[in-house]
Amino acid sequence: MLDLPTVRTALAEKYDLAPSPELAESMSDIYEKMNRVVSPADWAIYAPYVKAINDLKVKRNAVILGHNYMTPEIYHGVADFVGDSLQLAIKATEVEADVIVQGGVHFMAETSKILSPDKIVLMPDMEAGCSLAESITAEGVEEMRAKYPGAPVVSYVNTTAEVKAASDICCTSSNAVQIVDAMESDTVIMTPDQYLAQNVANESKKKVVYWPGSCIVHELYRPEDLRAYREFDPDVKIIAHPECTPEVVAEADFTGSTSGIVKWVKDNNPKSAMLVTECSMASNISDELPDVEFAKPCNMCPFMKKITLEKILYALDTMTGQVEVDAAVADKARLSVEAMIDLSRKLGI
Ligand code: 13P
Ligand code: SF4
């Protein structure tokens, strides 16, 4: 576990991280991308970290891959590429840097390491997990195979390297229906998200059987809350992530991956929108879309929020938090991830 007092003492010895309105002012081009959601006082606190991280990235030949759930100061301030799980996995295969810092959770860093075994992949906080990834092991995959002999296993990327290695192919929220439909068998096993699987089943020709995992962020939404909101604001566009229950998805005007959600809001520019997903999503796009009023509530992912500027700076400075995946496991897991990337490219996703 990261000991924050130790982290702070180590950083204070090397960097001047005191809040600085002057430095903040000199970096106003970055601040402009988040000034609707980050106060000037907070920006004066963040600016020294953003500068130190961006300087270190050059020194280390590092890139930061930031998931759409990162907080605005990470998403706009230090991330070199932002996107959903599929986009970040593809980016990990393309970047030429020596070091990848994963602005996201552990399974994403593992995916980057599986795809780029020669690069150093840094996880700023090893405890940034995921309730879905924790819900299943490779033995669970074998249990499903024994129950449904001959059925292929499509595992969500929100899984450990061992589970990916035990699967036939991976999927993300942006390609799950197409991947399942592309399987030859009539019955397809999906792990580990029961709600994604049920939402896929509602759109697919296949019989989908699934593992009973769930996302602790998306399972909290209830259809009656969305209906109540729509009653209050009949013009609101409700946009959900497919990790929500099918009952919630049925209330939505659109359902898609995190980047699918961003694209839908940018393309449609609704008067008001409720993003039925993690809180940072609305914050990260609200400056670009000043005419859209984003409805609260939202739910916070406690794992994604473990990643902070301070921990990114510490990881890059000390080169600690290096992600390792056993070579034999990585070789097998790579087949599942690459099968997904290849099929997605072929299908034009
Ligand atoms: P996306 O692939 O849609 O970005 O989802 C990842 C995730 O963890 C959502 O909870
Ligand atoms: Fe996992 Fe849910 Fe957090 Fe995404 S939002 S990382 S699925 S716990």
TrEMBL record:
Matches recorded under Pfam families: NadA
UniProt EC number: 2.5.1.72
Residue numbers binding iminosuccinate: H67, S85, Y156, V157, N158, S173, H241, P242, E243, T258
Cofactor note: Binds 1 [4Fe-4S] cluster per subunit.
Domain of life: Bacteria
The protein's required cofactors: [4Fe-4S] cluster
Residue stretches in coiled coil: none
Family: Belongs to the quinolinate synthase family. Type 2 subfamily.
Stored NCBIfam families: nadA, PRK09375.1-2, PRK09375.1-4
Known function: Catalyzes the condensation of iminoaspartate with dihydroxyacetone phosphate to form quinolinate.
Protein name: Quinolinate synthase
Organism whose genome encodes this protein: Shimia litoralis
Lineage per the UniProt record: Bacteria, Pseudomonadati, Pseudomonadota, Alphaproteobacteria, Rhodobacterales
